[in-house]
Design a protein that fits this description.
The protein has one helix and 29 strands. The chain is mainly beta. A five-stranded antiparallel β-sheet has the order 3-2-1-28-29, with no helix packed on it. A hairpin with a 4-residue loop joins β6 and β7. The longest helix has 19 residues. 46% of the residues are buried. The N terminus is likely disordered.
């Protein structure tokens, strides 16, 4: 009897002690949110929706979130920590807002022109939507949208084939690629700051910028390589070409995909036709080659990195350790087949709440994180 009374008192004391202690903070979960089907590549598709992978569990598949509208095929996928939301754009002009916490669509809008690879300002107020590389009229440029409602608030005519767009992480600028032109805008109101042309050799292109809006690296349209753009001077300082690993000659493929590591020491570019990633030291001027990595498949071409800079992601199922340059994982769809997409973004959650969202472009983060 005394022993039973002792156990009861001990249990009561433990309960009181636990209830008066601060709640233990939940573990941070890091996930890769990827979309399918990709509007720019057939390789690696898996149904219609968002596929979620656990970064800290070997990038294993976690779940699929069905998104019927994705049947229109995805042109862009971006996100914002301030709002805790993800934003998708489709080849048929749908722009939508998705809440990772509730796994529901918040709003959707439809535009006659657009929507390509959009971007959102870090304050979560304005989405800049390129009208599309396929749009070649005088109306080509940006549709500016209120991120809280999906309503159009402006239309900025820029130039033909408006394609990729970036909102700088410091909130100052927005960048847009059109044909062989890179245009810089003030983020708060869309006012043009400067236009740099010609750049990128030919056609539309992916690009990336550093954290101080000092340098941009722009993919070439006919050769594997990139232009180095001095954004302060408004000019190209050098054109850097990758060399064929076997012949040492320049590679006559277009370059589609350019991302810098968060610490701004390396630039990785994609030769999707050659199934390779080329790496350059961008602490040097001009940048110097550091080698290449082989990819398991071709595709659209893309490159970005995990927020901590540990992993490199491309348009393929291959995941590389940035430091060792070794392949460390392969993305698998629910059916066990290799999965790939060029529209993806990192989402960090704690206790079911969004804590941080990455960027679909490989952008410099020095001094910002």
């Amino acid at each position: 009897m005394r022993y039973a009374l002792f156990l009861s008192l001990a249990a009561l004391c433990l309960a009181l002690s636990s209830s008066s202690s601060p709640a233990t903070e939940g573990d941070l979960g890091r996930y890769l949110y990827m979309t399918s089907p990709d509007g720019a590549q057939q390789e690696g598709r898996s149904g219609t929706g968002i596929l979620v992978f656990d970064i800290d569990d070997g990038h294993k598949f976690v779940k699929r979130i069905d998104m019927p509208v994705f049947a229109e095929t995805l042109r862009g996928f971006t996100g914002c920590t301030a709002t805790g939301k993800l934003y998708y754009s489709t080849h048929q002009g749908t722009l939508g807002c998705f809440d990772p916490e509730t796994e529901k669509v918040v709003w959707e809008s439809k535009f006659k022109i657009g929507c390509d690879r959009s971007c959102i300002t870090p304050d979560g107020k304005r989405i800049y939507v390129p009208t599309g590389w396929w749009w070649q009229t005088e109306d080509s440029g940006f549709i500016v949208v209120d991120a809280s409602t999906g309503e159009k608030i402006d239309h900025i005519k820029v130039g033909k084939q408006a394609h990729n767009s970036i909102a700088s992480l410091d909130g100052q600028f927005v960048y847009l690629g059109t044909q062989t032109t890179l245009t810089q805008f003030r983020a708060e109101d869309g006012h043009p700051v400067q236009t740099i042309s010609p750049v990128g050799e030919s056609g539309v292109f992916p690009f990336c910028v550093d954290s101080k809006n000092r340098w941009a690296f722009v993919c070439l349209g006919k050769t594997v390589g990139f232009d180095v753009v001095d954004l302060e001077a408004g000019e190209i300082t050098s054109r850097v070409l990758a060399a064929d690993p076997e012949t040492g000659e320049k590679i006559k493929h277009r370059t589609h995909g350019a991302g810098m590591t968060p610490d701004e020491t390396e630039l990785w570019i994609s030769d999707q036709a050659g199934k390779k990633l080329f790496i350059f030291d961008i602490t040097k001027r001009p940048p110097e080659p550091k080698g290449h990595l082989d990819l398991s498949m071709g595709g659209h071409g893309w490159i970005t990195f995990s927020l901590d800079g540990e992993y490199a992601y491309s348009h393929t199922p291959d995941i590389f350790d940035v430091k060792t340059k070794q392949k460390v994982a392969t993305l698998k769809a629910p059916d066990g087949k290799d999965f790939a997409s060029s529209k993806f973004i990192e989402v960090q959650m704690r206790d079911g709440k969004v804590e941080r969202i990455g960027n679909e472009f490989g952008l410099g983060r020095v001094g910002l994180d």
